[in-house]
Write a structure and sequence with these properties.
heterodimer, A: four-stranded antiparallel sheet, 4 strands, B: 56 residues, mainly alpha, 3 helices, 79% helix, 0% strand
């Protein structure tokens, strides 16, 4: 412990300001992280569906609200039966930690830019995979009920190209 | 993503919609699915954390 040099900063204005900024950043990061994790969750459903050659018919994301800090989302595939459906449903909650693990592995190998670029590409892929003929942001002001928060909805009428070359 | 994934599993717990539908489809109890997700999330956080902190 001889190499550590303790500096008394607790209670000083600079330290307090830094702590406040850190708290604001953490609060902001939590909200942003929740949305990215939600996209990864739905992206996991999508990737699993593509692996099983399912057609992705719709992709919904609903923004987090007070009662539901995580927000909600839904990935609709066609058909929704069989073992593939079990795998597709399981993949949702398994995907964010596994994606994080892959990212950690890549960062540990010194390629943090690769993780950043892959993240952007995957976020774009979520929008492109269900080749959209109709996508729009919904806000409460667009609907008379105003019961739901802003959400992203992507519909498609085409069959996506499956990486296995087969689409249900 | 590592922390957020675990947080999401814990926040949704066994009452999440995917677990309910998986139970309806397979008759496997919800807590089994929840335990699977929780295990994946905790192991990923542990291994990923060690990788990022350079202790792997």
């Amino acid at each position: 412990m001889g190499q550590w040099q303790y500096i008394p900063v607790v209670g000083q204005p600079v330290a307090s300001a830094m702590a406040f900024i850190a708290l604001v950043l953490i609060a902001f990061a939590t909200e942003v992280a929740a949305q990215i994790v939600r996209v990864a969750h739905e992206g996991g459903h999508m990737m699993a569906a593509l692996l099983f050659g399912r057609r992705i018919t719709r992709f919904d994301l609903q923004e987090a609200r007070g009662a539901d800090p995580l927000g909600s989302g839904a990935t609709h595939t066609d058909p929704q039966t069989g073992f593939g459906d079990v795998f597709i449903r399981f993949a949702g909650y398994a995907t964010p930690p596994l994606v994080g693990l892959i990212g950690a592995h890549v960062i540990a190998n010194g390629n943090s830019w690769g993780v950043l670029v892959a993240g952007v590409v995957l976020l774009l892929a979520v929008l492109v995979i269900p080749r959209s003929i109709r996508s729009r942001w919904r806000s409460p002001s667009c609907f008379s009920g105003a019961s739901s928060g802003p959400s992203l909805r992507v519909d498609q009428a085409f069959r996506p190209l499956s990486p296995l070359g087969w689409s249900g | 993503m590592l922390i957020g994934g675990l947080w999401m599993v814990l926040k949704r717990n066994i009452n999440n919609m995917d677990a309910v539908k998986l139970t309806l489809a397979t008759w496997i109890p919800r807590f089994v699915w929840f335990a699977g997700w929780l295990t994946i999330a905790m192991v990923s956080l542990w291994v990923g954390g060690r990788l990022l902190l350079g202790r792997a």
